[in-house]
């Protein structure tokens, strides 16, 4: 992570730039690596209609408004589960029991960023305030329609969001 040098680094690694959540390293063989703070993402399916909870926000890195599962960084000293509960409350003002699903590397070809995916059930309203500067809009979507919109290029999202949608759609298929 950018704010800590406790993780083992390959011999010959040189940090060439360090920001708040990303550090860029060049390894001895010239390979470039983005060291990124770990994150969480939370899948919530509404029992009444099967819609999935997401947030819409402008993402400057891709110059688009995206629809994504609630997500965020794990703060120093925080467990992934604690971060998931905090992020769900901050971004959607909802809380509920969390089940760990999996973890995944975002793009292991150049970054060590890892995202822990949780599923929340029996969510209920709770207090939570978005991070300063975040402009989020909670938006429930039909998972099939969201999947189709991404496939058509009409909806921008993240890989972990697609994994969450696939999980919901596979569960439906298994129920048939």
Fold and architecture overview:
By secondary structure, the chain is of the alpha+beta class. It has two domains: 1-37, no CATH class; 39-175, Nucleoside Triphosphate Pyrophosphohydrolase. It is 22% helix and 35% strand. The longest helix has 17 residues, at 159-175. It is globular.
- Count up the helices: 3
Low-confidence stretches at least 5 residues in length (pLDDT < 50)?
1-6
User: What name goes with the CATH superfamily of the largest domain?
Assistant: Nucleoside Triphosphate Pyrophosphohydrolase
Question: What's the CATH C level of the largest domain?
Answer: Alpha Beta
Reported CATH architecture of the largest domain = Alpha-Beta Complex
Task: Report the count of strand segments.
Answer: 12
- Please tell me the total number of domains: 2
Name the structural class.
alpha+beta
Strand order, main sheet: write it out. 7-4-10-9
Assign an overall shape. Answer: globular
